[in-house]
Amino acid sequence: MRIRSAVAVVSLATAVSASVVPAAAQAADRAVATPTTFSDVVVNGGKDIVLGPTTRKTVTITWKVTDPDKVVATWAFLWHGPNTDDADGHLPAYPPAGTCTVSPTDPTTSTCKVSFGVDAARDFRHNSLAGTWNVLTEAQDATDDWTDADVAATTTFKRNAKVTVNAAPEPVKKGKTITVTGKLTRADWANGTYTGYRGHSVKLQFRKKGSSTYTTLKTVTTGTGGTLRTTTKATKDGYFRWVFAGTGTTGPATATGDFVDVR
Hints:
- This protein is mostly beta strands and 263 residues long.
- The chain has two domains: 35-158, Immunoglobulins (Immunoglobulin-like); 161-260, Immunoglobulin-like, CATH 2.60.40.730.
- Helices cover 10% and strands 50% of the residues.
- The strands form four sheets. A five-stranded mixed sheet has the order 2-9-8-4-5, with no helix packed on it.
- Strand 16 (238-244) and strand 17 (253-254) form a beta hairpin.
- Residues 1-31 have low confidence and may be disordered.
């Protein structure tokens, strides 16, 4: 679906009402129209936007817009779907015009930004909305020439993940077996909760007491309900944790280390 600001709609209506202008004159106007270009489009500082079931956060889009005829207004918003006409999500619902600063060295170029609130419980009611979103940019110049770019950049919304860990027994004799368990879950936006994330690789890491560095011991695949379970030998005092790298639709997760005293 094409989203335009109220200002844009009014401008288009005015253009239609002025259609009595001779075709030759309109063609001449188009011939001299100068191109508007968008660059340096960045969403959320270039970072993925990771949301839990009830996460609320502010998202900022920044961009540059250049036009020899100077830009009088510009917009940027996010959309998700196969194309703008069939989009199944757009943020914000009513895009405000960007706040811009004209370059002190180039009056035809402005640096702009817009910030808006995202509420997972309100805006992400379907898990299918996780993944790549597109940025549509639009601008109106001083000659009332309108330009837009459907995909000026992209960003990624991901479902938040959590992982737990428990290493037992504690304490344990050196050389004995330690069983490390845990569970990987991720946000279920549709139901407003967290559910088990099955069939994904998670690393078991260990950090010896007094060190700040974790070492990967092995990789385990989550089972039913996102469960994790493996064994290892007790060698020295230290901390065990699970680390999930994330996927294209789910954010990363790292458990807080569980200390085991080896005697």
